[in-house]
Structure formats: C-alpha cells, structure tokens
Request: fold
Amino acid sequence: MSALQAHDDYALHQPTASVGGGRAFDPEVRDMASYVHNYKIDSDVAFETSRYVFLDTIGCGLAALQFKHCTAQLGPIVAGTIVPNGTRVPGTPYVLDPINGAFNIGAMIRWLDYNDCWLAAEWGHPSDNLGGILAVADWISRTNRAGGQVGNGTILTIKDVLEAMIKAHEIQGCLALENSFNKVGLDHVLLVKVATAAVVSKMMGMSERQTADAITQAFVDGQSLRTYRHAPNAMSRKSWAAGDACQKAVNLVFKVQRGEHGLPTVLSAPTWGFYDVLFKGRKFAFQRPYGSYVMENILFKVSYPAEFHSQTAIEAARRIYSELAKRGKTAEDIQEITCRTHEACIRIIDKQHKPLDNFADRDH
Reply:
C-alpha cells in the first residue's frame, strides 16, 4: 500500500474505529468529536446569548488596543508581512496567516481580563476560543471567495461562527464543571486549546476522525503552568496565554489536516498518558452531556475589568470610598479591614499583602 493510499484509508475511519493494534480513542475524546460533528444546536437562548458574547468579546479586544503592552505583542512575526486572503485582526491593519491571527485576536480578547467568565471546579473564559474561531472563519471565507477550496469551498456566516462558539463554550465549560486543573497547577487555557482545536477542525471541513486526532494533539501538547497568574509571579503572560492556546490549537489542526495522526489513548495510557502524568491518575468526571448549557448560563463581567471573584470587593471599596469622602475622611482613617471571601478567590488573587508589581498583578 502506498503512503497516499494509507492516508486515504486512515481518513475514512470514524472515531470509534480501532487503530494501532486494536486501540480505540478514549471515550472522552470520542464524545467531543461526535458532539462537534453531530449535535444540532437548536436553542434560541444559546444563539441569542452567543450574539451578545460575540459583541462583548470583540469590544473587549478593541478596548485592549488602547494599551501599548498589548499592541506590542500584535502583528506579523516578520514586520510588513501580509498574507493573501489572510485573517484580518480587528482594529488593526494586520492581515495574517490564521495561526498567527488566532494569537493576535486571542491576545486582544483576554488582555483586559474583561470578557466572559465560567466558574466551576475550574475557572475560565470560554469566549477566549473566539481568537481561533474568528481567525479561521475569516481566512476560510476570504480564501474561498477568491476561488479557494478550504473546507470544501464553504463561505462561512456569522451563524456558523456563533455555533462554533456555542460548542467551544460547551466543551470548555463541561470539562470545567467537575475537573479542577488549577489544583494540579495547570492553567485553564488548556481547555481553550482543546475546545478550539475541536471546533476549528470541523470548520475546516475535516472528518470526525480528524477532529478526534486534533483533540488528542491538544491534550498531548505541553500545558501551561498557572504560576503567571499568582503571587509572586503574576505578570503579563496571563494576558496573552489564551491567544497562545488559540495559536497552538489552530497550528495543531493544520498539522492533522496535512496527515498527522492522533494518539488514541492520550488520556488513559498507563504511565505516559495525561491522567497519570498531569492529573494524579484521576479520570475526568462529567456532570452532564454536551449540549448548549454553558452558553445559556455564561457570566458577563459587567462592572469592572478584573478577576471575577473580586467584582463585589471592588464594588464595596467604591461605596466605602464615597462614604468616607462624605465624612471628610480618607483611607488613612481606616484602622482595620476584615475581608470574608471564597476559597477560590483566595487561591486566585490573594497577594499576601505584598506590593502589586505590575498591571497584571493589579487586575488579578
């Protein structure tokens, strides 16, 4: 059998097929791939909410362009590079390849810590996935309008983008409901990489089997440590970590599209799999099947561009400031502050009374 024939035969397999000595894909991977390819989103609430999430997320990205630390990270790797029919980065003159475009849009979205939020055993911001989704959707549509045949020549619509967002939210959010990645030191952008890889592969016209391959590649990829979000190392990497995850996800999808295979037991393989190496031997737990629950129940940061658990503390501080001003007093007149809060809040943003070193330290 030629290499080309072998590749064609491989592409015909479904995620339930046995590969490499009779091994099937981990059921967690199969479920994600099947959901992306076969589940029909019919929730009006989910689509309506996804529209608000889309607008809110783009707004967060555009607001971030006011800050030089953000714009310094944007643009092509080599100055002046313009990709024909490439991804346009909103609010900028950049036209990039979809991999770098995913980083740019993802970094903008997350920079101010103001886009949506999901609180569960793991925390996160599912709209981070729009970095990869929008970058790939724009590139596909512009390329195909110019005569290309990406994803079978499809011209994607905003509804396609919204559906991809709903499914990415669902994958990230359902994985987060019962599984704490932060308690093993891993950052939640791991879930962005997995969810983006899953939905982007479908957008690019790849098979259910290839989507499973891409998901496994996202799981085996090196995962980010959370230390850049916590004292004493809180710093600006947390602002572009989601962009980095989107970039890696899209890159891995392209590799699978070009023939790279997956790792069927990437999660469960004894000794070398994700569970044994990074999750203390535990398997993922699931509270509910994939649907549209996460998008329907997503949280927006309405008041302040800061970590979600701190929102009420900021509100209280502003009210106290006003009360002190009415009495002709300042913070110097406060003898003591007692703060009662959630365990998660202490884990994420407790600075242990140390000085706040940088903007990333202050908003987190």
